[in-house]
# Entry
Amino acid sequence: MAKLRVVGGNPLCGSVRASGSKNAAVAAIPAALLAHGPSRLENVPVIGDVEVFVDILRELGADISWRGPGVLEINPNGFEEWQAPYDLVKRLRASYYLLGALLAKFGRAEVALPGGCDIGVRPVDLHLKGFRALGAEVSLEYGVVKARAERLQGATIYLDDASVGATINIMLAACLAEGTTIIENAAREPHVADVANYLNAMGARIHGAGTEFVRIQGVPYLAGGEHTIIPDEIEVGTYMMAAVATGGEICIENAIAKHLEAVAAKLRETGAEVETDGDWIRVKGPSRPRAANVRTLRYPGFPTDLQQPYVSVAARAEGVSVVHETIYENRFAFVSELLRMGAKIKVEGRTAIVQGVERLLGAPVRARNDLRGGAALVVAALAAEGESEIDDLQYIERGYERLDDKLRALGAEVTRVP
Ligand code: UD1
# Structure
């Protein structure tokens, strides 16, 4: 288990470049299997979740390899496996995308239900509802989802909740189906549109991805394609939080500012200056942030994945912030670690009441099985006085590329202890 040692209390300053989006990459990689020719993905982040997915596909027999920094080539020719067992997929929640991809490719898929962060129950009923609507027979046997269809048929599918995973999984399944599929109340997160752009580059006909109404006209065949993954707005948002929590001033390059409007607005409420020119964002934190309430929402609202890093900002703000989580039922477990750093936070169900303190104090803490909760501890440790040690670093490295290097480039005193 690696650790991150942080000597905090100093404002971050300097520039950092955003990496490619984790959530787009883990959907684009299985999407490549749908084609009849090789694909080349660029700006792929080298992070734990991506490396795990590459390993899973390799073990299933796919020809997939890194061709340079952030460049992944995937050749699906010869790939014939439609079963993905639990001991492979349990390492990664996004392995559920294999269901849509294998079902589209082979007309059958058997994929064990995956693992992932401990932040809530996270069912996949809406994914399965979508596959059934497309004409697949779907069952759950001994923890394995089995889906089968002679030929998937386009259908209109209303999602009761705008699930990101269900939207992308249905897009994957529907792009080779017969006829037109319509997803109503689709997720609008930036990576939904990014994955659709990649599928379209391979010859799919997807319209409206990124809005709540997505139309997919099935095509008989997809060729390979080239695609550059969008920047990771959650990584960018995390660095924005770190700048505000430490009272620093940083510039994040290779970002899409439009994807972070809700976050920028909230940080301005805390007294931060946020400027942008479209593809870079400059954030200057006040010496001490003001309290501000947050309610997580689906995109374009304030993202649940930045709720936890935001709690670390609120932990040293002046006043009381009420943070309400609407997407997951259990996303405050990391708070018990923040308390060890002197934070004053009370959690009641899906709400955290954060009484800001003037000083956080370094402490040994654990990320446990929680990627963004771990990122929140890093933000708090950077702001805290003295030394912190964040254990279980690999959970954080599932989603943050070269975290220690990037923080050092911003002047932070951090050491990765293997
Ligand atoms: C994706 C992101 C994740 C982010 C989340 C919400 C990826 C790989 N991960 O996760 O980082 O936190 O969106 O922005 O893109 N739900 C159901 N039934 C379903 C599907 C979801 O009830 O069939 C519920 C879950 O229990 C949970 C919420 O919806 O409460 C999660 O939403 P969803 O958008 O599906 O999240 P993921 O795709 O898992």
The domain at 22-225 is CATH 3.65.10.10 (UDP-n-acetylglucosamine1-carboxyvinyl-transferase; Chain).
